[in-house]
Every structure is written in C-alpha cells, then in structure tokens.
Write a structure and sequence with these properties.
The chain has about 160 residues and is of the alpha+beta class. The chain is built from two helices and five strands. It is about 45% helix and about 25% strand. The longest helix is centred in the first third of the chain and has 43 residues.
Length: about 160
C-alpha cells in the first residue's frame, strides 16, 4: 500500500509542480526570444514607413476578435513588401491608410516591427512566468509539508 501511495504522491507532485514550472519556463524563454528579435530589428533593422492596407482577424476563445494590421512598405532596394505586424495586435480595427514607422530585416523584409514599440507583451509574459513559478514553489512546499506530516508518503 505504501508503494501505491508513493506513486500517487509523485504523480500529484508532477502535475502540481512540474506543469506550472514548465509553463513558467516556456513563458520566460518566449519573452526572451521576442525581446531579442525586436531588439535586433530596432538596432540593425532598416527604417521604412508602412501603410495599413487591411486587418487580419483572429477569433479568440472567449468570443472576442483580435485585429492585426496588414501593412505594405517599400524597402531601400525598391521591393514592395506586404506583411503583418503582430506586435500591434489589438481589440480594435486598425484604420486603413494609417502610416506606421517600422524597422525591417534587410535579409527577410517580411520580418518587421513598429519603430516605436511597446514592451507590454514581453512584460506580460514575464509576469505570468513569475506567477506560474511562484505557484509551483508554493505547491511543492505544501505537498512536501503534508507528506511529511502524514508519514505514509516517503519523499525520496
């Protein structure tokens, strides 16, 4: 019976501690990659003035709709580029014809970001990553304490 209890305690520990830890780490890695990509574009990307030509709609699970601007701009070499700006996702439609200053990668011009970018998405990812890791630590402490009190669940 003790071996069975030990098995269940390990499964519970994996779900309540391992899952949130993994989610928190994935959020940190995603935030770091996003920050690095945008930082590289802002430092070494080429400037251009883009014009909003459309909105890409995305239906969210809660019934709301997210709008991502579709922009077009001309590179220094004269190439016409049409791409989306995921960094400007929002819950309101972007006005067609609006001009947006962007920075783009000369090697891959479809990779563009607004020149005046907000760090809000990266900050949100970091905050949620911290929350998941704090939950994991608290869950680990609570589970460890309760297992020690009951004595039936050896922690090895």
């Amino acid at each position: 019976m003790i071996e069975e209890s030990d098995w269940w305690s390990r499964v519970g520990m994996a779900f309540l501690v391992g899952g949130p830890t993994l989610v928190g780490l994935v959020l940190f890695v995603g935030a770091a990659r996003q920050w690095t990509r945008v930082r590289a574009l802002l430092v070494s990307g080429r400037p251009a003035t883009a014009r909003v030509v459309d909105n890409q709609l995305e239906s969210l699970s809660d019934g709301r709709t997210s709008f991502r601007p579709v922009v077009t701009f001309r590179t220094e070499s004269g190439q016409e580029v049409t791409t989306t700006l995921p960094d400007l996702d929002g819950f309101r439609s972007h006005l067609v014809g609006t001009e947006v200053a962007v920075r783009y990668d000369p090697e891959k011009p479809s990779d563009a970001t607004p020149a005046q970018r907000s760090n809000t998405p990266v900050v949100v990812m970091v905050v949620f990553g911290v929350l998941f890791l704090v939950f994991a630590v608290c869950a680990y402490r609570m589970i460890s304490t309760s297992m020690e009190e009951f004595g039936d669940f050896p922690m090895r």
